[in-house]
Amino acid sequence: FGALNINQRSVITTPYPTPDGDFTLLVTDWFKMSHKDLRKRLDAGYALPLSDGLLINGVSKGLIFTGEQGKTYKFRVSNVGIATSINFRIQDHTMSLIEVEGAHTLQETYESLDVHVGQSVTVLVTLKASVRDYYIVASTRFTKPILNTNASLRYLGSKNAVSGPLPVGPTYHIHWSMKQARTIRMNLTANAARPNPQGSFHYGTIPINRTLILANAATMIYGKLRYTVNRISYINPETPLKLADWYNISGVFDFKTMLSTPTIGPAHFGTSVFDVELHEFVEIIFQNDERSIQSWHMDGTSAFLVGYGSGTWNVTMRKRYNLVDAVARHTFQVYPLSWTSILVSLDNKGMWNLRSQIWSRRYLGQELYVRVWNDEKSIYTEADPPLNALYCGQAKRPR
């Protein structure tokens, strides 16, 4: 159990001084039921209940992170749960946000931060308070009741353990969370994976080649709960999609299974794959008409999260987009009865999964695939299947 932390390359400078220490916090929701029992419940057609608690690094309480007064520490915080958004805060301390999912951000200061399922943030915390212990708190968002877990930030030499009530965080406050999310912006002059500045890719000037509007829903199919995207509840075919695509095996999937906009009608099962040409610039709108928050993850690339809004998306909402310094990330929250919009340059050839990061929803069908393709056969755009690839269904190992 632990984190895989990727540091910057030696040729990349960071837009902040080297911190005096580095802490990793993996926050997760926790169920008393085993994963097998959770799966049985879903298979029987029932939604999962609220989790029984929260953990930090696998512990419900008692963890201690020690630092020295006057020094600055990096806290890497990831929501590795399966269902629940969290709010993260440190008693009597502010946090300077420096990174979101691999992208350097403008260093805004926060008293608390919402972190949704599958998301990661990094903050700097300077220990300016009196020498004692302070609560580190993670609490659930948009749930009734609100669940809490805590650890301690201990100043070196402290003789006073944490005591008293936990610092209060936001409760439901959807609009508060959306407003906070809009303040998370890209640091255009900083470097990230490459020496060139993050702002050198002017995504806001690129014409949109295609728009996909994806509406999630909870529904019943054959008397059991399923989750859908544009009325399709995803099922895996017997033949892996990538092998079916590579070897031109017919009948495994159909690009016409899912339409690119929501329609009215009954939900049904299907293997949903969108066909997109390599290097197309695509606008994807996640439309959430449910009263629960959503979290979506896109494999294979990062995307610019350009807009949030309440209600139903329409083309006039593009006027609200951040076309200058939206953060590039892989995981996107969609607030209840709201929409989220991303812009993505699909420059990575392959068959990429786009799914709900909330485990129960993905398990019951809230996912699809995006096939990024062109007819150029080149190892510079896509490698051949590895020699140890597993073949099944209609895909047979070449002789």
UniProtKB/TrEMBL annotation:
Residues 22-155, 239-377 form the Plastocyanin-like domain. The keyword Glycoprotein applies. Transmembrane segments: none annotated. GO terms for molecular function: copper ion binding; oxidoreductase activity. Pfam families: Cu-oxidase, Cu-oxidase_2. InterPro entries: Cu-oxidase_2nd, Cu-oxidase_C, Cu-oxidase_fam, Cupredoxin. Keywords: Glycoprotein. Belongs to the multicopper oxidase family. This is Plastocyanin-like domain-containing protein.
